[in-house]
Specification:
Cofactor: FAD
Order of helices and strands: EHEEEEHEEHHHHEHEHEHEEEEEHEHH
Bound molecules: flavin-adenine dinucleotide, uridine-5'-diphosphate
EC number: 5.4.99.9
InterPro entries: UDP-GALP_mutase, UDP-GalPyranose_mutase_C
Oligomer: single chain
Enzyme class: isomerase
Number of strands: 16
Structural class: alpha/beta
CATH architecture of the largest domain: 3-Layer(aba) Sandwich
Mean pLDDT: 95
CATH class of the largest domain: Alpha Beta
Number of domains: 2
Catalytic activity: UDP-alpha-D-galactose = UDP-alpha-D-galactofuranose
CATH superfamily of the largest domain: NAD(P)-binding Rossmann-like Domain
Length: 378
């Protein structure tokens, strides 16, 4: 073995694939019983509808290197992601756009009129100096829209006062003064034609790659554990960075999600793939209806059944799957301490969402793995 990769998510598999293509022998271990990390998906057995087990995953990128790379393993459908939100029993389009604004104010504003109105409503804060999520939200869209669509959704998603959350959390949500309601701004988007798992398996399908599942790096009863491998073979580690150092600098905080999945005896539950629930009286943040991610599979999906998943968000304990880094000031200090410790580890390379404590979209995880391979490992 020339390289040990801990974790078979997109980061680990990209490293493994590049190393194998360069003639290195690679072993990938994962503590889960399946490959692919959080992008893993499987067909719901009763309906055959593809369900993303760890939350809906939409691929999008503007990075030509990443787009060329991922197309070696899968084709993409022409799916374009759109999200709607329900507020006080009425459905509005997201991200906030001219359609949302006109529906909310029961008006027919032109782009310039809507901009002038929002500017007037947003006057209390300046987006450039916004110190936290609440100030940023109000600066971007004004208080009435912020309170309707952002405040309570964010409180459900983070269970943290928006005044204590970093402004960047909502920078990902554009505000548009047109009727364009594409969720992403990227050049390319789509879903893998044969599903995520087929894509991930193709990345690992190389005679130089061996994958061992249900194998935990910290389990000393299995031979490829931390004690036995560090300093003996180069390691790419994509598990949680605090766990690697046995929480020596404290625990980094994460949010986890609970998914409540149901097969319903109807053809169509909500007419779209994702419906957010903006109000505090609904305990879940959103409902996913998975058949709508693949309209091109209409002839093979049932017309009298559908799969819906309600998503609930809460703080993660050590026993939970970590999903979103919370990134409080304490977390940022902890992360710096772990980065110092990581520098001292001989030939151990920390990568991916958990290994760097960073929210990374799939294209970012793949892009940073390609950089790590090219710049450090190759
Ligand atoms: P992961 O996929 O988390 O893989 C890490 C792997 O390491 C896991 O398989 C884990 O089991 C393994 N591991 C951990 N510890 C150990 C250990 N001790 N021993 C062995 N193995 C271990 N991105 C998008 O681009 N679009 C989206 O729409 C999108 N939606 C998302 C929705 C949710 C709810 C979440 C949480 C993420 C979403 N993402 C999305 C991000 C996407 O999941 C990540 O970009 C991607 O999973 C990152 O890959 P990774 O390899 O860094 O991490
Ligand atoms: N957000 C919101 N209302 C919505 C959707 C998003 O307030 O209807 C805010 C919320 O704070 C969320 C952030 O925008 O955490 C990012 O939303 P996105 O949908 O990109 O998050 P993800 O899909 O990763 O959960």
């Amino acid at each position: 073995m020339d390289l040990l990769v801990v974790g078979s998510g997109f980061f680990g598999l990209t490293i493994a694939e590049r190393a194998a293509a360069a003639g290195r022998r690679v072993t990938v271990i994962d503590r889960r019983a399946h490959i692919g990390g959080n992008a893993y998906s499987e067909d719901e057995p009763e309906t055959g509808i593809e369900v993303h087990r760890y939350g809906a995953h939409l691929f999008h990128t503007s990075n030509p290197t990443v787009w060329e790379y991922v197309n070696r393993f899968t084709d993409f459908t022409s799916y374009v992601h759109r999200v709607y939100t329900t507020h006080k029993g009425v459905v509005f389009p997201l991200p906030i756009n001219l359609g949302t604004i006109n529906q909310f104010f029961q008006a027919a504003y032109t782009p310039d009129q809507a901009k002038a109105l929002v500017q007037e409503l947003a006057g209390e804060f300046d987006a450039k100096d916004a110190a936290n999520l609440e100030e940023k939200g109000i600066a971007l869209i004004g208080r009435p829209l912020y309170e309707a669509f952002i405040r309570d959704y964010t409180a459900k998603q983070w269970q943290t006062d928006p005044k204590d959350l970093p402004a960047e959390v909502i920078s990902r949500l554009p505000v548009r003064y047109t009727y364009d309601n594409r969720y992403f701004n990227d050049t390319w988007e789509g879903l893998p034609v044969d599903g995520y798992t087929a894509w991930l398996e193709r990345m690992a399908d190389h005679p130089n790659i061996e994958v061992k599942l249900s194998t935990d790096y910290f389990d000393e009863s299995q031979p490829l554990n931390k004690k036995a491998t560090v300093g003996q073979v180069p390691v790419v580690y994509t598990g949680p960075v605090d766990r690697y150092f046995d929480y020596a600098e404290g625990e980094l905080s994460w949010r986890t999600l609970d998914f409540e999945q149901e097969v319903l005896p109807i053809g169509d539950f909500q007419g779209t793939s994702v419906m957010n629930y903006a109000d505090a009286d609904v305990p879940y943040t959103r409902i996913h209806e998975f058949k709508h991610f693949h309209p091109e599979r209409a002839d093979r999906y049932p017309t009298d059944k559908t799969v819906v998943v309600r998503e609930y968000s809460r703080f993660a304990t050590r026993a939970d799957e970590p999903y979103y880094p919370v990134n409080t000031a304490d977390d940022r200090a902890g992360l710096l301490a772990y980065r110092d410790l990581a520098k001292g580890e001989r030939d151990v390379h920390f990568g991916g969402r958990l290994g760097t404590y960073q929210y990374l979209d799939m294209h970012m995880a793949i892009g940073s793995a390609l950089s790590m391979w090219n710049n450090q490992l190759a």
